[in-house]
Amino acid sequence: MDLGDVRYRPETGCAAQADLRHDSLTATAPPAERWLLIESHTPWPRQALTALQRSSSDLGLGDVVARRCRELGIRPVLIRRFGRVDRTGPRRWGLVDCRPGHELVRWGDLPTDEHLLEVLAGKDTGQVSTAPIYLVCTHGRHDACCAVRGRPVAATLTAAYPERTWECSHIGGDRFAANVVVLPHSLFYGQVAPARAAELAKQYDERAVVPDLLRGSGAFIPPVQAAQHFARAAGHSPAVDNLLPHTVAVLAEHRWRILLASTNGLIAVEVSAHLDTVDARLTCAGSSPAQIRRFELHNLTPA
């Protein structure tokens, strides 16, 4: 897409170009150990949280919520159901802990946007839910590829799992649209086609990941995500709770030795990260050239 283009075309969007380049999904999940899900009945602006408003005349609630979330290590996103929604009905909030061994989902009612401050302060703890959550990024005002590729996936998942599926605002990795996050394990999937959307949910019900679509888990740093990817590629179990990090050692700049706890005992994985410069935009609104991080496997052995 030329710099002068103002019209979006799917065949020249960032996701289509990433497909042509065969961009790797490996270890591209952003940090996301905890999530705040905010149901919204209004159109989403480019910067999602600017849609939040106090009940008083102060319209800066989005900044307050964003700052508090940063302090708590929480990722906030707007959510909505796919298709026509009764905008007069009650809204909900969700708080999700994705840390290994602490996975938990809580839901509560959201009478006003300002009530989010009560939730973040722990004054409203909601109710625990055991049902998984599927977030599909459809934030078209942030990047058109997310909407064009995300909505068909949201439709497919909604048809199969209506109570578990939500459209969501920007989660990162626009070029990997359609992007899906499975909670509470914070599993980021990319390049998801409608035909494979239900597969992610079915595998999760069986406590397994789908390795070829997995960007990584936001509960782990990218070097750990990379180590887990290479271990699965070497034949280790794709079980959700397999390959948890035991230790992470920095060997040199951009090089790590990671011990993973597998079903076959500890394994040592040595990886390094490299930046490749590409003559491309990584988002539809981005600039060229850009840099892409790539992980390389150096060693994988029993510890």
UniProtKB/TrEMBL annotation:
Descriptive protein name: Sucrase ferredoxin
Gene3D superfamilies documented for this protein: Glutaredoxin
Domain of life: Bacteria
Pfam families (UniProt xref): Suc_Fer-like (PF06999)
